[in-house]
Amino acid sequence: MQKIQMVDLKKQYSEIKPEIDQAIQEVIDSCAFVRGPKVFEFEANLAKYLNVKHVVSCANGTDALQVAVMALGLEPGDEVIVPSFTYAATAEIIALLRLKPIMVDVTLDTFEIDISDLETQVTSKTKAIIPVHLFGQCTNMDAVMTFADKHSLFVIEDNAQAIGADYNGTQHKGKSGTIGHIGCTSFFPSKNLGCYGDGGAICTNDDKLEESIRQICNHGEKIKYHHDIIGCNSRLDGIQGAVLDIKLPLLDAYNANRYKSAQVYNSLLRNMDMIITPVEATYSTHVYHQYTLRITNGKRDELAEYLKENEIPFGIYYPIPLYKQKAYSSYVKEGFKLKNTELLCNEVISLPMHSHLDIETQEIICSHIISFFNGE
After folding, report:
1. Nearest CA-CA partner of 280 in 88, 107, 84
2. What's the CA gap between 178 and 78, in Å, rounded?
3. CA angle 222, 228, 229 (to 5 degrees)
4. Model-level pTM greater than 0.85?
5. pLDDT digits over 210-231, tens only?
6. Into how many domains does the chain fold?
7. Contact 43, 266 (CB under 8 A)
8. Beta-bridge partners for 293
9. Residue 85 in contact with residue 111, Cβ under 8 Å?
10. Quick one: CA dihedral 66, 67, 69, 74, positive or negative?
């Protein structure tokens, strides 16, 4: 049997190889290796897909977050609220810019930012909030925007894991990443829309923010060699733009395949009392960047070791709360603890998930999980 992959990019590439190879060759022939026509075409097409006025591509998803925060003009010491259960990049860019990440708890069902915890953390120094659309579905953006409006906060959506998801709230509707002031995404190869290296993008409906974002990404230049603001070097290369433009029209189909695979997992694991399968929010579609289980009997780590021994790949996203990471310990008081985050870090485990996952592979994966819990 072929080795099971956590993410199988070879199958995806094999289906679109002629188009991808041709697009890459066109970039090589044109020598437009950084930005260039292919990148600008992709930006325009992504803006149309998202139904947003502006898309600015950049070098990676972390840069997207950093540039977005830079564009807001915050001052050192200003506070930015982030969920505690997320990848470090969300807080990393805040610390790098000499701002203060304020960590709040998440919900146990959808793993999204806990709206009830926001009011306990907001202060006069709070200037922004970064909700993370974790694992493939949107945060409750109606509630986030209501909170932000009440306290005059900027909202930057971390959309690295949910591109293509639809938000269907009562007050707001649209693609993930387009509800707040700025949306940021990543095109890391394993993402639902992934390139063949690093890449990212920032979207906004605000003309002034777009101008600032584009300028920051290009060393603070609007006119060549005229540096009016402090910027950075964060530009998407032509090959990645070409790859992404080929894959963008396929994104909805890729996401639909992931959703079907998630339902197969749900069916195969439905009778396991010690497993909680993913909960889908009523206000968002789910594009399943990750298929994440909660193991409620305290045996998550034992299951992980069992899967490893049987060559079944898995991921634990995330094993340590952000506030317990050494790099961020100085931003919280000693003994700081968030109940739901602590529990999830001990319970979550993610199974293989990608756009070309077949049922036979899922049956093998789930048979091992069932065997473990049945003591076989």
Report:
1. 107
2. 24
3. 105
4. yes
5. 999 999 999 999 888 999 999 9
6. 2
7. no
8. 349
9. yes
10. positive
Residue 180 to residue 328: CA distance in whole angstroms? 26
pLDDT at 376 over 70: no
Residue owning tokens 């199988």: 8
Q: Looking at the structure, do residues 274 and 157 belong to the same domain, yes or no?
A: no
| Residue 351: strand pairing partners | 291
Label the pairing between strands 79-83 and 126-129. Answer: parallel
Name the domain boundary from 231, 249, 267.
Answer: 249
Report angle CA 200, 188, 202 to the nearest 5 degrees: 15
Residue 96 exposure: Cα atoms within 13 Å on the Cβ side: 13
| pLDDT value for 2 | 80
CA distances (Å), 75 to each of 72, 97, 122, 184, 363, in order?
9, 9, 17, 21, 53
DSSP codes of every residue in 280-305: PPTTB-B--SSEEEEETTS-HHHHHH
Please say whether the beta carbons of 107 and 80 come within 8 A: no
Whether residues 203 and 236 fall in one domain: yes
Distance, in Å, from the CA atom of 211 to the CA atom of 232, rounded to the nearest integer, reads 14
Does residue 324 share a domain with residue 197? Answer: no
Do residue 215 and residue 172 come from a single domain? yes
* 18 and 117 share one domain: yes
Residues 133, 368: contact at Cβ < 8 Å? no
Any domain includes 4: no
Strands across the sheet containing 154-158: 54-58, 200-204, 182-186, 154-158, 126-129, 79-83, 100-104
Whichever domain contains 341, its CATH number is 3.90.1150.10
What tens digit of pLDDT does each residue of 239-281 get? Answer: 999 999 999 999 999 999 999 999 999 999 998 999 999 999 9
| 46: containing domain | 9-104+112-249
